[in-house]
């Protein structure tokens, strides 16, 4: 059977190679005629497009698979890709000026100059080249390196053979050919996103102290609060939900998976959808982060997987004791060690090059801040070095490639164990055989609670319990990070220390720690750096567990049940609070509440609206917008004041609860929300979609879903623009959604949706087609098997290759 399938695939690929009547989607570039009959030799691939511009890439080997992927990504996303390659080459200031803001896709750098100083330093030091030479599994495999080489060639071939139509970079001099090193460097930037990438401004600004008074620091208590906010902010634009059900809950004993990652809708952290096939070797469908050569989230014939941003803290700090005579010398067990000086020069548009010095230690770079709220002053006696174990991790693509070739959840686990390449995500998977799987398998600094107890500085004693950010005494060798025997690199946890849960009726994560992956089987025993145990869960986690536990109890689940869950749009916060607010509101003397500044506001109409609201955030829900604006303000009230019944670790899904309407902030929040909507000319009972929308092709598309604090599974993080009519764009939220199961055929039962569509080019027909589906809560039926691809009414086939 396997041989027959392989021959069938080869036959389809061979037919595609000689299909001369097919072409790329007509609006991807103006040179569609040339794309029908490219000439020359070298690398090549077959790209078959089905509905919504989804490419199915067939190639003979990994280099040619990378070629087809690079070509097809460039066709849809050339400007965003080119912008990212400019970033990792450290050339943003050269083309856009030093002071302009970045889009934060590849680091937290506030300005182009800060970004360039960091990435040019990475390039000058040969960091990525060295990692490429590390033998697998500690370094990337030959197959992955071949995909990188092919991706660069495919991207270059596309820009050489086509005229760019996207206004974002049409005729731009900064769209240039790239190398395999550029592709690898982009992957490296994603790996360090939660470590060095988070501390970029502090790394590039760090300079030895002068005679001037040192900058003010913060108290340990202030640092603890700042670290907690800093580390939780990662989920503001990158979060996710995912659930896997095992065969005991499904209609046919096979597994089910619903993946709902929440990522930015614009820029370099968008997903891009495709199918990758090497006949007899690889056949996988899903979505890749832009610039990635392998599938990031997806499914094959036997297994499906998704990721959620994890709570593990991917960095730590070492507090250095400095030589009183020289602040660039630090002491370890009383012996002096001189910092390494890295001089970095960055070309700047219209000005002379900027040259700065970065300072590195045995622990990593010196940094003077972790965001504005957490300054780490470099004084005559103290400095701080940032340790990021992902700075030696170029294994993410191999981990994903292992998933792509998996035949079950055991193979997913094997890839995690062998490659150990996931920097900041959990993995959730289900398979055809009915298994479910969760693992918080991250590359984390090996900070045990015992090490933190022995070696934390006063600052660390505050930050580690509060946030998981360890600040260790860098002056002691016995405070160095240890090693696990099963770890692929020194200084990280091995697989045996990771939180894992297998073959439960459901395993679910919504960006809280691993503790309540299954509420009936809480996970414990892991170190604080992984996340918390027995602490309050987010509203989204609480709602998600209620939903998926109920689904598991109901049983006989199918893919259609996953689809309903995705768009149920239930607002758990509304169910907890709306009735209480409506009753309190109705009892107000004269229907008046006091807003900010003591302003009285007539809120009597709001009482009826909230009482009648259906507690959902569908686009036609009346009252959802009012509650949303109220709840954003009320959520600022401390939990101890907001709820009458406090959190109980024995009842973590149902607590805290019972809104305390007597808390002054609650009434003020309602008054302010009512005043805000009236000032914007928005009716209190207006349908949500009338004022929560995106504009595509000149038309408003109503968008359902809601923000984090409401607890919505289908997260929508909209941009408030009262003068423009309400929420007029989406910054982040549901992105590449997949609902996957299996029946008795070899073809998976899969429904997918890329909420923001394949292309950011407004001239492409695939810049908004799936967004229209998302607005209508409709799905794409995955065309995975050859017979389904061949039946696509929109099938277009092209052979793409290099010219010589």
From TrEMBL:
Q: What is this protein called?
A: Acylase
Q: Which Pfam families match?
A: Penicil_amidase
Return the similarity comment.
Answer: Belongs to the peptidase S45 family.
- Record's signal peptide: 1-29
Gene3D superfamilies to which the protein is assigned, alphabetical: 1.10.1400.10, 2.30.120.10, Glutamine Phosphoribosylpyrophosphate, subunit 1, domain 1, Penicillin Amidohydrolase, domain 1
Q: Which InterPro entries match?
A: Ntn_hydrolases_N, Penicillin_amidase_A-knob, Penicillin_amidase_dom1, Penicillin_amidase_N_B-knob, S45
Please give the superkingdom of this protein's source. Answer: Bacteria
What are the alphabetically sorted keywords of the record? Hydrolase, Signal, Zymogen
Molecular function terms, GO-annotated: hydrolase activity
Q: Which organism is it from?
A: Streptomyces californicus
């Amino acid at each position: 059977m396997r041989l027959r399938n392989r021959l069938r695939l080869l036959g389809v690929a061979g037919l595609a190679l000689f299909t001369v009547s097919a072409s790329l989607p007509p609006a991807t570039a103006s040179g569609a005629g040339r794309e029908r009959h490219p000439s020359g030799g070298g690398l090549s691939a077959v790209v078959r497009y089905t509905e919504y511009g989804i490419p199915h890439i067939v190639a003979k080997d990994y280099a040619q698979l990378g070629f087809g992927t690079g070509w097809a990504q460039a066709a849809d996303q050339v400007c965003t890709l080119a912008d990212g390659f400019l970033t990792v080459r450290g050339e943003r200031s050269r083309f856009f000026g030093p002071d302009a803001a970045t889009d934060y896709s590849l680091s937290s750098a506030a300005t182009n100059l800060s970004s360039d100083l960091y990435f040019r330093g990475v390039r000058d030091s040969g960091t990525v080249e060295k990692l490429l030479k590390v033998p697998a599994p500690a370094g990337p495999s030959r197959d992955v390196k071949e995909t990188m080489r092919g991706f660069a060639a495919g991207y270059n071939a596309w820009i050489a053979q086509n005229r760019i139509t996207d206004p974002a970079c049409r005729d731009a001099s900064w769209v240039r050919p790239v190398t395999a090193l550029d592709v690898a460097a982009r992957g490296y930037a994603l790996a360090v996103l939660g470590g060095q990438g988070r501390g970029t401004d502090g790394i590039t600004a760090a300079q030895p102290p002068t005679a001037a008074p040192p900058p003010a620091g913060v108290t340990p208590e202030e640092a603890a609060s700042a670290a907690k906010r800093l580390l939780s902010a990662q989920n503001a634009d990158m979060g996710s939900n995912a659930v896997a059900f095992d065969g005991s809950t499904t209609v046919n004993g096979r597994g089910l998976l619903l993946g709902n990652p929440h990522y930015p809708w614009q820029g370099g952290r968008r997903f891009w959808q495709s199918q990758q096939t090497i006949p007899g070797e690889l056949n996988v469908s899903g979505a890749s982060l832009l610039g990635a050569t392998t599938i990031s989230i997806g499914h094959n014939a036997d297994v499906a997987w998704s990721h959620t941003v994890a709570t593990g803290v991917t960095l730590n700090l070492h507090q250095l004791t400095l030589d009183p005579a020289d602040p660039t010398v630090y002491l370890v067990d009383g012996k002096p060690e001189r910092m390494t000086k890295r001089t970095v020069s960055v070309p700047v548009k219209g000005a002379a090059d900027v040259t700065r010095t970065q300072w590195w230690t045995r622990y990593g770079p010196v940094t003077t801040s972790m965001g504005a709220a957490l300054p780490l002053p470099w004084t005559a006696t103290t400095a701080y070095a940032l340790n990021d174990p992902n700075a030696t991790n170029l294994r993410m693509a191999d981990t994903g490639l292992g998933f792509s070739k998996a035949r079950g959840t055991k193979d997913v686990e094997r890839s995690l164990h062998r490659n150990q390449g996931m920097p900041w995500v959990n993995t959730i998977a289900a398979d055809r055989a009915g298994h479910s799987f969760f693992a918080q398998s991250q590359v984390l600094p090996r900070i045990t609670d015992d090490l933190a107890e022995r070696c934390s500085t006063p600052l660390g004693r505050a930050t580690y319990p509060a946030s998981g950010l360890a600040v260790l005494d860098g002056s002691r060798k016995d405070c160095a990070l240890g090693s696990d025997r099963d770890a692929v690199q020194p200084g990280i946890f091995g697989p045996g220390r990771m939180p894992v849960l297998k073959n439960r009726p459901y395993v679910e994560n919504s960006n809280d720690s691993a503790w309540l992956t299954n509420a009936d089987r809480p996970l414990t025993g892991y170190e604080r750096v992984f996340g918390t145990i027995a602490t309050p869960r987010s509203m989204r986690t609480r709602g998600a567990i209620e939903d998926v536990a109920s689904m598991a109890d109901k049983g006989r689940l199918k893919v259609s049940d996953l689809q309903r869950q995705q768009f149920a749009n239930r607002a758990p916060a509304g169910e907890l609070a709306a009735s209480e607010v409506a009753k309190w509101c109705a009892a107000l003397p004269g229907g008046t509440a006091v807003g900010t500044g003591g302003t009285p506001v007539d809120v009597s109409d709001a009482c009826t609206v909230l009482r009648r609201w259906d507690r959902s955030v569908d686009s036609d829900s009346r009252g959802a917008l009012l509650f949303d604006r109220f709840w954003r303000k009320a959520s600022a009230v401390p939990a101890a004041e907001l709820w009458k019944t406090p959190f109980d670790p024995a009842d973590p899904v149902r607590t805290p609860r019972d809104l305390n309407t007597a808390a002054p902030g609650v009434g003020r929040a309602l008054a302010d929300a009512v005043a805000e909507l009236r000032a914007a000319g928005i009716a209190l009972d207006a349908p949500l979609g009338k004022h929560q929308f995106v504009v595509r092709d000149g038309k408003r598309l109503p968008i359902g879903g809601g923000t984090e604090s409401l607890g919505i599974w289908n997260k929508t993080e909209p941009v408030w623009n009262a003068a423009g009519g309400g929420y007029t764009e989406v910054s982040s939220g549901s992105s590449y959604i997949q609902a996957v199961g299996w029946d008795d055929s070899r073809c998976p039962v899969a429904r997918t949706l890329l909420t923001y569509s394949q292309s950011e080019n407004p001239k492409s027909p695939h810049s908004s087609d799936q967004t229209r589906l998302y607005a209508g809560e409709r799905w794409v039926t995955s065309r995975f098997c050859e017979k389904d691809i061949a039946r696509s009414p929109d099938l277009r086939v092209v052979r793409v290759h290099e010219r010589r």
